[in-house]
Design goal:
Blueprint (H helix, E strand, L loop, with lengths): L11 H8 L15 H23 L12 H6 L4 E14 L22 E9 L8 E6 L13 E10 L2 E9 L2 H46 L4 H21 L3 H28 L7 H9 L5 H34 L5 H30 L1 H8 L5 H5 L2 H33 L3 H7 L7
Antiparallel strand pairs: 1-2, 1-4, 2-3, 4-5
Helix pairs in contact: 2-5, 2-6, 4-5, 5-6, 5-8, 6-8, 6-12, 8-9, 8-12, 8-13, 9-12
Length: 437
């Protein structure tokens, strides 16, 4: 006969589960058993309703945007491209009359030979001239492509008048290697993260789908870019966090912290841009928006970029912080809320410290060519730092860093509050290696 150990000899986690009051079963575990959990779900439901209303109100028309007709020509988006493969390459004098034209036979030699350049015979693999060959002359210089036999490239096709068609080098074809690298990244994430890794890949697809399919068309319709970014970011968070991490108290706490920090980042971004009078017009892309899409606010677009740029880092920190709290509560259910908060904040401070310089280095990496040009110029360090093009990146890093610092105590407090009254089953669902897989 096996005797049951007295209550005082059982582990604390077991004592709590044995002595805890059993609540009525909830449908699928979606409705929390404790009062704190139900309040959190109610708040998140209201926020979700507000997000859904915002999505409906800001829903894009998907009509063709009104764009200055010169934009397509200046940006090169009006060019029709065709695939081609390099057959042979040599070096010879430029100036052949057959340059860029479909060859009826061997290419003609230049009548007035120019400087030597790279000459390539390429065979078209698409379009009306598929299977025929074209001569490409590429003068030497910075940025000139280095073509070799077997290279797959894209040619721009244009009408030369009188029914004649000319071709010019447009870009390399990267479809196959790009797809292979994306598959490699997805395989690594799935191999390491298992089902969560697979859900993370799906979350990336959903996030990009919302941004490309809803955020950008809504901004093109002339809606407030900041409002679109906040509503779109909220929609992404609701879809991605629950998809990747499941529906449990841990994700409720993470979402509460992320939404609050995102709103703080939006307010801070607006204040920073207003007080520093950033224009964003130092970037060529924003200048083109100002010239060719005059109904779109450049400052609003800058604000939206600040908010969306901070989302990914905020999500990382809030989920990690919430998971830390629930793991601590799961291991020691009798620990006090202040004790858990202090311990989790210790982890959070280390996380914030590492993420802040990671954020700054990431932005610095994207601006390396610009910083290199500044380093050989005559402007002083202070003048460079306060210029629009550098100040945008500095303040973008600042907004992200402040939002990170705010989201740690917010998420930690929410997670401690929700975990206090969580049942053993809810703690199991919220922690690693249990039913939340």
């Amino acid at each position: 006969m096996v005797s049951t150990p007295p209550e005082s000899h059982r582990p604390r986690a077991h004592r709590r589960r044995a002595s805890g009051r059993r609540s009525a079963p909830r449908i699928g575990g979606l409705v929390p058993e404790g009062r704190a959990g139900r309040i959190a779900v109610l708040v998140l439901a209201v926020a979700a309703l507000a997000t859904a209303i915002g999505v409906a109100v800001l829903w894009p028309s998907y009509a063709e945007p009104t764009v200055d007709p010169t934009y397509a020509w200046s940006a090169g988006t009006s060019v029709v491209t065709e695939g081609a493969e390099v057959v042979s390459t040599d070096v010879g004098p430029c100036g052949s009359p057959d340059n860029g034209r479909v060859l009826p036979g061997s290419p003609l030699e230049p009548r007035f030979p120019g400087p030597e350049c790279s000459r390539s015979i390429v065979q078209l693999t698409s379009g009306p001239d598929e299977g025929r060959q074209v001569l490409l002359e590429i003068p030497p210089g910075p940025g000139s492509p280095d073509l070799g036999p077997g290279d797959e490239i894209q040619l721009g096709r244009s009408d030369a008048g009188g029914g004649a068609v000319t071709y010019a080098f447009e870009d390399f074809t990267r479809t196959v290697p790009l797809v292979l690298w994306l598959l490699f990244g997805a395989i690594v994430m799935v191999a390491v993260g298992a089902w969560k890794g697979l859900r993370a890949v799906a979350g990336i697809v959903i996030a990009l789908g919302v941004i490309v399919g809803w955020v950008l068309p809504s901004i093109l319709d002339g809606h407030s870019a900041l409002l679109v970014a906040v509503v779109g970011g909220s929609a992404v968070l609701y879809l991605v966090i629950y998809l990747v991490h499941g529906v449990n108290l841990k994700t409720h706490a993470a979402l509460l912290g992320t939404l609050t920090a995102m709103l703080g980042a939006a307010a801070l971004s607006w204040l920073v841009i207003e007080t520093t009078r950033l224009t964003g017009l130092s970037s060529e892309s924003t200048t083109q928006v100002q010239v060719y899409l005059q109904h779109v606010s450049v400052s609003g677009l800058l604000l939206a970029g600040f908010v969306i740029g901070a989302l990914g880092v905020l999500n990382d920190v809030t989920v990690s912080q919430s998971a830390t709290v629930f793991e601590m509560r799961h291991l020691d259910p009798d620990a006090g809320p202040v004790e858990i908060f202090r311990a989790a904040m210790g982890v959070g401070r280390d996380h914030v410290a590492s993420m802040v310089y990671t954020l700054v280095l990431a932005y610095t990496g994207t601006a390396l060519p610009l910083l290199l040009l500044f380093s050989v110029g005559t402007r002083g360090p202070l003048s460079i730092l306060t210029s629009d093009v550098v100040a945008v990146e500095v303040l973008r890093s600042l907004v992200g860093a402040v939002a990170l610092a705010l989201c740690v105590p917010l998420t930690t407090a929410a997670a401690v509050w929700l975990s206090r009254t969580a049942s053993a089953a809810e703690l199991d669902r919220a922690t690693v290696g249990t039913t939340a897989r």
